[in-house]
User: What shape does this take?
Amino acid sequence: MRKKHHHKKKPSFTKKWSAKLHLWFGLSVGLIVFIVCLSGTLYVFKDEIQHQLRRDAYYLNAETIRQNPLPIEVLKEKIILELKDQYPVTSVEIPLDKSRSYEFWYYEKDKNAWNYFDEIKINKLVYVNPYNGKILGVYNEKYDLFPILKSIHWSLLLKTDWGKYVVGIPVVLFIIMLITGMILWWPKNIKAAKGRFSFDWKNVKTWKRKNYDLHNVLGFYVSFIALLLSLTGIYFSFPWVKNVFNQALSGSPELPKEKEIKSPDSLSVKNPAVFDLSAQKAREEYPSYSSFRIPLNGKTKKGKELKNIPVIVYGEDGNFAIRSQLIFDTNSGKLLMNKSHDQLNNAEKYANANYDIHTGSYFGIFGKIIWFIAGLLCTSLPVTGFLIWLGKRKKKGIRKS
Assistant: This one.
């Protein structure tokens, strides 16, 4: 009896081109996607890990807690005298929880550097007991695992300004890979759909098939979160992505510009308690918030001169989504502006929340766990995909010989 020859149906134009793009982009940026996914995944539980490792610096001994903390200027001078650093103290983060230490930061960048280690002149974190001025811990964040992971994830350890495109462009290609992957995954009929949602490894003996299933099935499940991770990631890299979000959320591509605030009755001489007045007002205005940050050297994190004292107040510990801003006069400490989270438009609220959505912290610890698993699966895709391609090449090589 002659066997019937079943002619394999040719793939559609869409599937054919999806396969080509998926392969070409995969081979060209697969390694970068692997590095970006792995570094991002390892960063997810940064806060939880650091709080455990730095418990003694992070939390105060109950016996040392007093009614009133020492003035910020006094604490700052104490740090300068003790650490004798060549750079000025840049800012302080003050928790509203009295059992927590103050965090003083040294942060300085070199605009002309081309890589992370040269660009960050100093990134040092000093934990201080605000009631007795005792330094509880000094951490050189520049060489700490998490900031290095963040820089790998953000710019492959290249200068922030243009390194973000070295990551951003491959992520755009990764988005195309996710879409083409979904097209390739899409089953022709119900019968074909059976193997697309789960593994049937009892009947599968070869590692090649198992690897193919891992890429196919896990790729499908993770693709939705991967798309969200990628879009929230390129939001940071490309201004046009931010503009599209802004337009969709608030009908304007640009976020509202901050008006320059002039103080009507500024003192000519600086009040030495200006930072304490700012801190006291921040506590009064936002008692249910988590912490607030005051710049101490009259400059922004990017090195621009500040005309006033902008104080950012954070609503939740370790999160940035709920954020209010107070602006004080540099010399008198008078409150000039109070812009609460509720006053922001949707685009501004989203701009504050994007980081938390990207890291999963927006959805609490459950979100972080899901994001971590999704990150591991994303990290596996370039590997399993490369092995599929390698297997096919070997197969072709055998056929030719």
Summary: The mean pLDDT is 92. Strands lie at 91-95, 102-109, 120-128, 135-140, 291-295, 309-314, 323-328, 335-339. The two ends are 31 Å apart (CA to CA).
